Amino acid sequence: SYGELSSMYPKAGGQYVYLKEAYNPMMGFLYGWSFFAVIQTATIAAVAVAFSRYTSYLIPSVGENNILLSIGSSESPFTISAAQVLGILLIIFLTYSNTKGIKGGKLIQTTFTSAKLISLFGLIIFGFLLVKDNFWDANWATGFNAVSYKPDSPSGGGSGWESISGTVLIGAIAASMVGSIFSSDAWNNVTFIAGEVRNPQRNIGLSLFLGTLIVTIIYVSANLMYLYVLPLDGIAFAQNDRVAISAAQKIFAEAGAIIIAIMIMVSTFGCNNGLILAGARVYYTMAKDGLFFKKTSELNKHAVPEYALWIQCAVASLLCLSGSYGNLLDMISFVVVLFYALTIGGIFILRKKRPDLPRPYKAFAYPVLPIIYIILAIVFCVFLIKLKPLYAGIGLGIVLLGVPLYYLAASKNKTHVTD
User: Where would a tag sit more exposed on the chain, N or C end, judged by fewer CB atoms within 10 A?
Assistant: First the structure.
């Protein structure tokens, strides 16, 4: 579906452009505003916090338990930890490096992505080759049973695992999807910099397909390796949710923890560089349309929207202080999936609204697959509001706050006001 949209509108801005063209400028603005306030900036913050969490495995003094500042009541104080400060420093450093031109950012991205891929493939291969005492058969014996852990469960022989079904099962699936949606969300970031890609009508769609395929293969292979190396309880209750470290310790003994910590530091460093590099192009495009801060439409001597990068840096740094890693994921995932559903819905609108536009790519299995996706996305959003009302509600509130902000911005540029 994104291949069709990117081939129709091969210019910087990505999803912002697709929503603006399919619906109206306000819908595009709502996405761009949400992208600025939640989606991209909170993702940058969450990845920076993840970098800090794994750095703290090697350097405990920069961990979340090292509280540098505590303000407010002893029951619920506002705290700033060393991990949050390290995350902010990472964001500032990568933002600065990207203000020096796209070549430097591309070099960092290529280097760290290559290191990440080599490390991941190495971990997966060694996991299957070196571990003899594996849990493959035991895990798959009950692998398709839907269960939830309840310490006081009377069933399951005292194991704490209890069968679930119906809406409880759907809710559990929705909750478990939060992490996977977040981990794969940057798959479409190449569309944000389409204006800087050679032959974008061909290469953007190809990049989306190959990138998604490669990442899917890696993620599925890594999870199969976890099922081979660790028991289900070891996966479900890995210390601080560090499943990769638990697996690496089983593969490489104590040295494994250090290996995987370094791998994830490399991975999150490179990931955040890509997020920072791509994100500012959306604000740049919005500013060109008169719907964002005017200075974000300016390029510096390196042909980079420097002001857009720094304003993104400021918001992402503030979000590093806003809450835990899990809370950021809940907030991001709701807003991301909401706009994905709207964007996929835009294909139906554009097929009727702009049938004349060239479409080098067309959505696969249209209209069945897009409809299925939209339905599943709506179900996910509904259950996330039910299960995580606070942070999903904050995410929705930020989106709706964009409505008055749009009219405020558009009042200075009457051509963007629509009924």
Answer: C
Question: Tokens 């405020």 identify what position?
Answer: 408
DSSP H helices in 14-71: 15-22, 25-34, 40-58
pLDDT tens column, 183-231:
777 777 777 776 667 777 777 778 888 888 888 899 899 999 999 999 9
Q: Taking the domain 2-141+166-416, which CATH number applies? A: 1.20.1740.10
Cβ–Cβ under 8 Å, residues 215 and 184 = yes
**β-strands 161-163, 78-81: how paired?**
unpaired
165 Cβ neighbours under 8 A, 6+ residues apart? 146
Name residues of the chain where pLDDT drops below 70.
12, 150-160, 194-196, 240, 323-326, 328, 414-419
What does the block give as tokens for 146? 């839907």
Residues 6+ apart with CB under 8 A from 258: 57, 58
| Token pair of 402 as six digits | 């964009």
37 alpha carbon, distance to own chain's centre? 14
Using left for φ > 0, alpha for ψ between -120 and 50, and beta otherwise, residue 147 falls in beta
Domain ranges of the chain: 2-141+166-416
Of 44, 251, 109, the C-alpha closest to 52 is: 44
Question: Which residues touch 277 (CB under 8 Å, ≥6 apart)?
Answer: 98, 102, 105, 106, 109, 193
- The answer, yes or no, to whether the previous bond of 358 is cis (omega within 30 of 0) is no
Kindly write down the DSSP assignment for every residue of 267-305, as one continuous string.
HHHHHHHHHHHHHHHHHHHHHHTTSS-GGGG---TTSS-
Residue partners of 65: CB distance under 8 A and separation at least 6: 81
Residues 263/57, Cβ–Cβ less than 8 Å: no
pLDDT tens digit string along 315-366? 999 988 876 666 767 778 888 899 999 999 999 999 999 998 888 888 888 8
Between CA 271 and CA 89 the distance in angstroms is 15
**Among the listed residues 79, 44, 86, 78, the one whose alpha carbon sits nearest the alpha carbon of residue 61:** 86
Q: Which two tokens stand for residue 79?
A: 């705290």
Q: What are phi and psi of 404, to 5 degrees?
A: -65, -30
Measured distance CA(264)–CA(262) in Å, rounded: 6
Question: In the chain, what are the helix, strand and coil shares in percent, each to the nearest 5?
Answer: 75, 5, 20
